[in-house]
Amino acid sequence: MAPSARGGRGVSARLRVAAVPAAARETRHWAVGLVKEHGAKASAARTVELLVSEVVTNAVKYGAVADAIAVSLRCTDGSVTIRVSDDSTVRPVVRRARPSDLGGRGMELVERLADDWGVDVDARRGKTVWFRVALR
Prior knowledge:
Elements: E1 5-7, E2 10-17, H1 22-37, H2 42-62, E3 69-76, E4 79-86, H3 106-113, E5 116-122, E6 126-134
Antiparallel strand pairs: 1-2, 2-3, 3-4, 4-6, 5-6
């Protein structure tokens, strides 16, 4: 884990994790700790915890990661933006899962719970899925 860089009104941090199932747990603990340090209310921390888990799990399952998943976090102006990068250029799909479906809700949760989100694709570097959540 890279140390946080504090400056001005915000905090930035980066993490690289292996593309293994435990990556979601490691990343959510890391992210929740940082947003709590930056004054996140409990409901915002829970939202960050859930969305980080979903996006990192997608990177592990579908990201075709050669080295590691790169995660960055930036807390500023009362919100946090989290970016998760993997080696695939395939954009995630927002599905409308049926109640009986066992999975497929990750990006739907991101769409519903994040204040903003998106995907940046670079043909040579893969994609970055990002989302923003208000901390207060």
